[in-house]
Amino acid sequence: MDMLLILLISLFTLTFIGVVVGIILLIVRKERWAGIIVTGLSFGLGFCVLLAGLNVATATLFEASNNPFSIYNYDAGEDLYANNFEEDYDEDYYDDYTDVNFGEAVTIENGSTVTISKPELSQKKEGYEIYKVKVKFENTGSDAVMFYSEDVSLYDDTDDDYGQQITEDDFSGEVQPGEAKEITLYYEVFNSGPYDVEYDNYNWTE
């Protein structure tokens, strides 16, 4: 790129000299045709140099990532959006959950109290296992609240994965003030844990 710029500057200098020589031949020396030819060739060469210079400038701007639609940092060779997402994910995701002990009753924002027991092995199948989790959801507030048992998740710390809930008698609906729902949830898992249970902004663990 630097060599091309030097070449363009040199050609522009020769063009300027050619125009000056052509004007001298045409006006001072009174050599009409020679002056016209030299001046015309110089202007033609100058026009070509101008186009080439514009192309080089455009290419340089794109390489410097001045394109407003680009999400990449040319100099760093990195995806800025991806980096920002990873940083936000690392900082925010792990702060979403508050660890509590299995069997501990927790009052969540809507005024309900939730108690979750430690996951227990229910059945062993070929290639996978079924774990059960007992959940007590009690509306200790003054207004009816919604509870969806499918929002209770079994999380595998070892494999960083979630069990698949296969509960037949799950619950979805309103829970009235003073009413409690006690249900047992079942999950298919493919390893031996240990497991945590997540609900709302809390993580029940040992």
Write the layout of secondary structure elements.
Layout lengths: L1 H27 L3 H32 L8 E2 L4 E2 H14 L4 E4 L3 E3 L4 E5 L3 E6 L2 E12 L5 E4 L4 E4 L4 E2 L1 E2 L6 E4 L4 E10 L5 E5 L2 E4 L1
Parallel strand pairs: 3-15
Antiparallel strand pairs: 1-2, 4-5, 5-7, 6-7, 7-13, 8-12, 9-10, 9-14, 11-13, 14-15
Helix pairs in contact: 1-2
Question: How would you characterize this protein structure?
Answer:
The chain is 35% helix and 33% strand. With 206 residues, it is of the alpha+beta class. It folds into two domains: 2-63; 100-205, Immunoglobulin-like (Sandwich). Strands 4, 5, 6, 7, 11 and 13 form a six-stranded antiparallel beta sheet that branches. Strands 3-15-14-9-10 form a five-stranded mixed beta sheet, with no helix packed on it. A two-stranded antiparallel sheet has the order 1-2. Helix 1 (2-28) runs antiparallel to helix 2 (32-63). The longest helix is centred in the first third of the chain and has 32 residues, at 32-63. Mean pLDDT is 77; it is low at 65-82 and 89-94. This is DUF4352 domain-containing protein. Keywords: Membrane, Signal, Transmembrane, Transmembrane helix.
Number of helices: 3
Return the string of H and E elements: HHEEHEEEEEEEEEEEEE
Q: Which value, in Å, is the CA radius of gyration? A: 38 Å
How many distinct domains? 2
- Which bin fits the share of residues in helices? 25-40%
| CATH C-level name of the largest domain | Mainly Beta
CATH architecture classification of the largest domain: Sandwich
User: Would you tell me the overall average pLDDT?
Assistant: 77
Largest sheet: 6 strands, antiparallel
Beta-strand portion reads 25-35%
Low-confidence runs: 65-82, 89-94
Q: Count the strands?
A: 15
Task: Give me the secondary-structure category.
Answer: alpha+beta
> CATH topology of the largest domain, anyone?
Immunoglobulin-like
